[in-house]
Amino acid sequence: MKYRDLTIIPVRTNQSMVIACDMSAGIGEAVHDLLKVPYTMVGAYAARVVLIELLAFGATPILLTNLVGNHFETVGQAVLQGIREEITLAKLSNVEINGSSEENMVPTSTSVGVTGMGIINSTEYSMSTIRAGDCIYCVGKPLVGQAVIDELESIVTYDDIYALQKIDFVKEIIPVGSQGIWEECFSLTKATKKCSHETFLFNEALSDTFLSTSAGPATCVLVVVPHKNENNFLKFFPNAYYIATVK
Q1: What pLDDT is stored for residue 192 in this prediction?
Q2: Any idea what DSSP says for residue 229?
Q3: Cα(130)–Cα(195) distance, rounded to whole angstroms?
Q4: What are phi and psi of 166, to 5 degrees?
Q5: pTM for the complete prediction?
Q6: Which residue range or ranges hold the PurM-like N-terminal domain (predicted)?
Q7: Residue 247 — very low, low, confident or very high, per pLDDT cuts 50/70/90?
Q8: What is 181-228 written as a DSSP string?
Q9: Helices (H), the chain
Q10: How many helices (H) and strands (E) does the chain have?
Q11: What phi and psi, each to the nearest 5 degrees, are found at residue 132?
């Protein structure tokens, strides 16, 4: 079953496997890369997207696979190091890593794909239950490319994700992808076929750029809370951006 960017596969009566993936290209140290960053950072941020997707859904990551379209010695080894460092940063253990690299050709730009698998108890998740009156907030800031490096202090952290998971009135935690906040908001209501701007009352103080900018390596997440719990939520996350209210 496909649920937003995740694939969910029942594996036992009370357990399901959750699968997420991410792709990075043109970012690294190769001659034709468009954004020059260390290969360790490429691996770390590709892994970050997948880990946050799994953790935000409530799944426990158990496996990451990385596919590197470059030689292992020159690129893949550093990418693998970055992935391992990101797993440690996320305070995870017992996460297996597998992967492959390109050893026959000599690409002149970097390509890295990461797939993650996690396990969740089937009783611990539900599909979107968004209702009229629910409020949407953003924790972190949508950033992409060089802006991520320039504003690292603005991105959502693993500690934020873990804290959000512990708040019982939080209905949804949605990592923002490359299509931006607007599209992630619309994805919340696709099950009810209400996918237009008219479904939401957006915060007019936010610019179109803020709402449409890619969040790159999952630099922010949307959080859905009932209206009655807004004040309590803001006690936990006073710097969260108010995005919209569901009509």
Answers
A1: 47
A2: G
A3: 13
A4: -85, -10
A5: 0.93
A6: 7-119
A7: confident
A8: HHHHHHHHTGGGT--SGGGEEE-TTS-HHHHHS--TTT-EEEEEE-GG
A9: 39-57, 77-89, 146-150, 158-165, 180-188, 208-212, 230-236
A10: 7, 13
A11: -60, 135
User: What tokens were used for 228?
Assistant: 């009655």
Helix (H, G, I), strand (E, B) or coil at 125: coil
Backbone φ and ψ of 171, nearest 5°: -90, -35
The C-alpha atoms of residue 40 and residue 48 are separated, in whole angstroms, by: 12
pLDDT of 155: 97
| Residue 211 CB partners (closer than 8 Å, separation 6+) | 180, 181, 182, 202, 243
Read off the pLDDT of residues 151-183 as tens digits, 9 standing for 90 and up.
999 999 999 999 999 999 999 999 999 999 999
Q: Which residue has the tokens 């997420």?
A: 20
Cα-Cα-Cα-Cα dihedral sign, residues 55, 137, 233, 152: positive
**Mean pLDDT over residues 224-239, rounded?**
96
Domains of the chain, CATH where assigned: 2-121 (3.30.1330.10), 134-246 (no CATH)
- Which one is predicted more confidently, 185 or 44? 44
Q: How many residues appear in the chain? A: 247
